């Protein structure tokens, strides 16, 4: 059985998710800021991190990557379309906002190139490429546990913005329709910001998805 913990972090309150199994192994999704808080939670819960998985590389999702990676000596995974974004403040957007530090991480340890089933330690899940908000956005589907971590692709009664680097509204809506709304209606959607929702609720009530 998997347990998921949600931590809104940083000035934009980006959701970092920590998913652990019954043995205390855990995956860390989108450590966007406040590395010390993430590390403290993991230490207090006596968890054993095995990897950092990124839904995409906008600055608010990657700000604590190196701090957490170095603390636990674990690999980082990102889609190959955004492998350079981790290193480049112009691409990840941190250079565009006054008052925010430029985010420059080291390269990811693994670049995701294909969709499909993936196993890391005891964790089995599916990677789906869901571009539109950004070209390398991916969603991580835990079908057996009934949830998906989708980054900024889909929100409760909203969708990701497409006015940033590489954004495309048509591509985004296609990703949502083809890759997320095809999941079981009961699937819990964990977005990059705000509360969780379900596939069924978004089909019924999301005003951006009328016609799907």
UniProtKB/TrEMBL annotation:
Gene3D superfamilies to which the protein is assigned, alphabetical: Ribonuclease Z/Hydroxyacylglutathione hydrolase-like
Cofactor(s) listed in the protein's UniProt record: Zn(2+)
Superkingdom, taxonomy of origin: Bacteria
Domain spans labelled Metallo-beta-lactamase: 13-193
Keyword vocabulary terms for this entry: Hydrolase, Metal-binding, Zinc
Protein name: MBL fold metallo-hydrolase
């Amino acid at each position: 059985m998997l347990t998921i913990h949600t931590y809104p972090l940083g000035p934009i309150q980006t959701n970092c998710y920590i998913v652990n199994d019954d043995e205390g192994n855990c995956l860390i999704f989108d450590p966007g800021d406040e590395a010390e808080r993430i590390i403290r939670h993991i230490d207090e819960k006596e968890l054993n991190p095995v990897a950092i998985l990124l839904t995409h590389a906008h600055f608010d999702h990657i700000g604590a990557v190196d701090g957490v990676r170095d603390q636990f000596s674990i690999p980082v995974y990102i889609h190959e379309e955004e492998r350079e974004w981790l290193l480049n403040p112009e691409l990840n957007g941190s250079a565009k906002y006054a008052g925010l530090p430029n985010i420059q991480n080291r390269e990811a340890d693994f670049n995701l190139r294909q969709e499909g089933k993936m196993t890391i330690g005891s964790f089995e899940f599916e990677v789906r490429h869901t571009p539109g908000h950004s070209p390398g956005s991916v969603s991580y589907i835990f079908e057996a546990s009934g949830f998906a971590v989708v980054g900024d692709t889909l929100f409760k009664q909203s969708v990701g913005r497409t006015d940033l680097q590489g954004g495309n509204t048509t591509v985004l809506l296609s990703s949502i329709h083809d890759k997320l709304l095809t999941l079981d209606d009961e699937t819990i959607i964990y977005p990059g910001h705000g509360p969780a929702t379900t596939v069924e609720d978004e089909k019924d009530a999301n005003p951006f998805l009328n016609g799907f």
